[in-house]
């Protein structure tokens, strides 16, 4: 890999694993051992949150050569089996975060990752209404602010020189460009971005916005990448933490 920056990460989201795509990502993921130090997964790893889909997901991820850290997305909870899916991933060595942080040491460099699913709630120019819509809509509206507080606490607990915020929902409107403006409030919330800014993260990664844009910034100018598979149009993106410039 030549004279690259100290730590290179691979990231992806919204694989929506189901029988129709079983095995689609395996060869690309196996090759990552020669390209990256760490793989981060930003949720919606299954399509309907079923155990059968999670079994297919585990077959894609098992035995990879690098550490894998993940958060779940809203679809991973659709069938009420989110905890089971998290346990299945844990059993194959994936570190699943839900308000916690973890530290990976790669070639002598310590990297901290704090993760939550996050939630909706909207942004100053695109506010959401937590009192309207379905119960799921209202729950996700409430969860955005709650998970933002959990994310900030997890980030601030890290003592590593590099800290990544890993969420499913977006912390910025920048990476929503391309989505209908009418659904911005359901795709993320300002509270997540504020938490990332307050804690001083190095980088933020999310998914969820399938028609969004890869690159953006928080209000406080921290780099954010939307790593949704439909946005990337490839299995993963690679980022060098010193530059956060994508390749691959």
UniProtKB/TrEMBL annotation:
GO terms for molecular function: metal ion binding; UDP-2,3-diacylglucosamine hydrolase activity. The keyword Transmembrane does not apply. Residues 8-211 form the Calcineurin-like phosphoesterase domain. GO terms for biological process: lipid A biosynthetic process. Keywords: Hydrolase, Metal-binding. The keyword Protease does not apply. GO terms for cellular component: membrane. InterPro entries: Calcineurin-like_PHP (IPR004843), Metallo-depent_PP-like (IPR029052), Metallophosphoesterase_sf (IPR051158), UCP008292 (IPR016538). PANTHER family: PHOSPHODIESTERASE YAEI (PTHR31302:SF31), TRANSMEMBRANE PROTEIN WITH METALLOPHOSPHOESTERASE DOMAIN-RELATED (PTHR31302). This is Metallophosphoesterase. It comes from Nocardia coubleae.
């Amino acid at each position: 890999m030549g004279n690259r920056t100290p730590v290179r990460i691979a990231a992806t989201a919204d694989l929506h694993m189901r029988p129709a795509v079983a095995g689609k990502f395996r060869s690309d993921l196996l090759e990552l051992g020669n390209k990256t130090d760490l793989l981060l997964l930003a949720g919606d790893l299954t399509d309907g949150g079923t155990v059968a889909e999670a079994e297919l997901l585990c077959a894609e991820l098992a035995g990879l050569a690098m550490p894998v850290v993940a958060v779940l997305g809203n679809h991973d909870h659709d069938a009420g089996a989110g905890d089971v899916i998290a346990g299945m991933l844990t059993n194959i060595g994936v570190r699943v975060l839900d308000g916690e942080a973890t530290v990976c040491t790669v070639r002598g460099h310590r990297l901290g990752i704090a993760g939550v699913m996050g939630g909706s709630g909207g942004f100053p120019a695109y506010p959401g209404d937590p009192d309207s819509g379905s119960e799921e809509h209202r729950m996700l509206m409430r969860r955005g602010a709650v998970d933002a507080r959990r994310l900030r606490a997890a980030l601030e607990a890290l003592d590593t020189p590099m800290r990544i915020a890993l969420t499913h929902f977006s912390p910025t409107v920048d990476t929503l460009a391309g989505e209908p403006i009418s659904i911005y409030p359901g795709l993320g919330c300002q509270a997540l971005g504020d938490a990332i800014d307050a804690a001083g993260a190095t980088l933020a990664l999310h998914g969820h916005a399938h028609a969004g844009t890869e690159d953006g910034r928080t209000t406080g100018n921290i780099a954010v990448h939307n790593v949704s598979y439909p946005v990337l149009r490839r299995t993963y993106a690679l980022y060098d933490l010193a530059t956060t410039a994508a390749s691959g």
